[in-house]
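seq:
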Amino acid sequence: ERLTDRTLIQTTRKRDCPATVTIREYEVFLEYGCTSTEIQQLSGHALRKLKSGKLERLRKALANNHEQSVKTKFMYYVSLPMESAHTGHKCGIESGMAQRVHPMISQKVTQLVQEGATNPQEVRRALREFVKSELKENCPDQTNRSFFPTIEDIRNHIFMAKQGLEFSKLDQDNLNAK
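struct:
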């Protein structure tokens, strides 16, 4: 087997993880709901009768094509799994170790290479200043590799930027340049 120089921090790309995020959408009919005082004051049969009466009024309003006059609002219920439900991958800050570089950062690397900066340390310093100035209040954590890539990530992006600058997409332009 050939050993590679890549640092593999995360063992998997979250495959076969049983944890799921559930999002439910509810349409609430504002004029046809029971208030909390009605629910507290009534009990058993009286509450059931009140609810069925309001539901019948709603059905009639919808059946008579008065949907425009029925006031509604959409509510969303989001259920997130507990950290213990995740298997096969890390959670929390460590989960960000295998993130891709953000497109805004890739564009900035290309711009810096066009300006002549090809030293990865120099580009890293410029990227840190760029992220801190662009995302002032929403500045991500230093462990977020999308915005704070490793030297190896920066080196790869510098190489790709140089390749993009070196060759034109048209073969004729490349031939004329030689």
